Amino acid sequence: MLFLELVVQGLIQGSTYAIIAVGLTLVYGLLRVLHVAHAGLFTLGAYLGVLVTNHTGSLGIGVTVAATGAALAGILIYRLVYEPILDRPPYVALIASIGLYMGMEELFRLVFGPFGMSFVTPPLQDVVQVAGIYLRTCQIATVVINLVLLGILAWVAQGTKVGTGWRATVDDPKMAACFGIDPIRVRYLVFGMGSALAAVAGVLVALLSNLVEPTMGAVPSYKSLAIIVLGGLGNVGGTLIASLVLGVVEAFGTIYLGSLLDRDAIAFAFLIIVLMIRPTGLFTSR
């Protein structure tokens, strides 16, 4: 029973890592930019979700506002920060992204205060039994929402004209433009979608811990950057698998190695060991 419970807890955590990391993968696949400021959008989504939910009493409205607000912020970041420097070496965009995230952290601290924010009445906290395992309804909702979002993303990518244009732009931007696909619109779409996914992840993490603070995006974002390397840069499928594997490793490591390392240290130790063996990731050729 302990084995099954740890697997379930790991998949819950891993599914949240997945929707954060998928947004990063989308941006990297399109622009070859490591979008560190993604962590700021994750935190922005959490704050918006908690504020709106507390004000309206509706978690659904909170999630919708958070996703919409973060999507608009992501598009604005692309337009003002990344677009003017796309012709520069990749490290220029990386430095800009790191600086932007640090600025967003300080802005959150100034606007919302340094001590964190919580739901006045935390939703979805009832406990239910599933296959002999006790879970809070927010944990079940987290997995369901993440699966639905990933399913919608897969459908958009594979089953719509928008997705076809997006994949064509990733493969060959110049050829895609010759066939009438507007790469600027595609980039706006990808930034909007990735930012919305980060925002939803932020709300779900806030729901699980009932706490939002200015620096909450740092550790999930760093893990996500490692995950997209572990899964193979630009490889969405590999990113999803790597996210779930990391979640399960964390869950088991917390039980069996918790006296030596904390949860985050276990995760980073695992990622470092794997990347030392396979520096190009598990799902790309050497």
Automatic annotation (TrEMBL):
Example GO BP: L-isoleucine import across plasma membrane
Cell location: Cell membrane
Gene Ontology CC terms: plasma membrane
Cross-referenced Pfam families: BPD_transp_2
GO molecular function annotations of the record: L-isoleucine transmembrane transporter activity; L-leucine transmembrane transporter activity; L-phenylalanine transmembrane transporter activity; L-valine transmembrane transporter activity
Keywords carried by this UniProt record: Amino-acid transport, Cell inner membrane, Cell membrane, Membrane, Transmembrane, Transmembrane helix, Transport
Transmembrane segments: 6-26, 33-53, 59-78, 90-113, 133-157, 188-212, 224-253, 265-283
Membrane topology: Multi-pass membrane protein
Family according to the record: Belongs to the binding-protein-dependent transport system permease family. LivHM subfamily.
Protein name per its UniProtKB record: Branched-chain amino acid ABC transporter permease
